[in-house]
Amino acid sequence: MEFQTKSATETESIGQQLAPLLLPGDLILLEGDLGAGKTTFTRGLAQALGVKRAIKSPTFTIIREYRDGRLPLFHMDLYRLEHSSAEDLGLEEYFEGNGVSIVEWPEFGQDVIPEQYLRIEIKRTGESDDGRRFKLTAFGQRPTELLRALKEHLVDES
Ligand code: ADP
Ligand code: MG
Prior knowledge:
Structural class: alpha/beta
Bound molecules: adenosine-5'-diphosphate, magnesium ion
Protein name: tRNA threonylcarbamoyladenosine biosynthesis protein TsaE
GO biological process, one term: tRNA threonylcarbamoyladenosine modification
GO molecular function, one term: ATP binding
Shape: globular
CATH superfamily: P-loop containing nucleotide triphosphate hydrolases
Family: Belongs to the TsaE family.
Number of strands: 7
């Protein structure tokens, strides 16, 4: 599934529309360069889960937990794991837990990332500073169901 957004607000809106479809244990991997919009997407998603705290990039903490929404949200940024091990941080416990995990820079945590996930690739379109192209790919049965539900949900909205 592919689509484009024209602003940060539109990207937040995609996150907002995915949020009500999420179930405990869902895992979303966000791939894209610095400034692509990974944290912006997560902000929209968190808001629609009912998280009241401000979403801050977990670049320096690696993980931030938000437990005041409909489901616990585990927001990870693995960029700084480049030279260390994800296993040492106990990230598996989050993936096995009953929350939703969102991972920026999953490339750096390949040794601990489970087999089933929804991958979201974000790229600049080149047409304007604010244009982004999204490509969503499901790996596994539950992510496939989630992606199908999102397609129907987005169609309903438009
Ligand atoms: P990342 O987490 O991928 O490094 P951020 O979400 O922190 O990126 O930053 C994205 C930046 O790009 C923000 O300043 C945001 O306002 C801006 N931006 C402009 N257009 C878009 C868009 N269409 N989608 C997401 N962010 C956008
Ligand atoms: Mg980020």
